[in-house]
Amino acid sequence: MKNHLFESFNNGSLKLPTTTVEFTDIPWFKHPSFEGVELKHIVTAKDTDGGFSYHLVRIAPNKSIKNHIHETQLETHEVIAGSGVCMNDSTEILYESGTISIMPASIPHEVRAGDDGLCLFAKFIPALC
Known about the structure:
single chain; 129 residues; mainly beta; two-stranded antiparallel sheet; 10 strands
């Protein structure tokens, strides 16, 4: 999926008082459990003493992050590009650019990409990894 806003995130940077991290230097990883899902770990537990983590997520067209829960993490999604549906605590939420969704800890959720795929900025408190 080519999308100007998503490419801006993918090629962006994290700017801190003491350093800058270029996102192009961070590799994409295939999700270990969900086919067609890739992750770029922007900020991880080691960066924040476990406080929070930020991740770019790409879901290929018509693929999904199957139903799951995070026992201790609050999770947020900011939809950057594409479309899809999130089942958040048994409620269907339409995902389109500009949508923000929040999943409290221990709430079941899943995300299904539409025909054009889906790109998210996901945040976890405390950190996922």
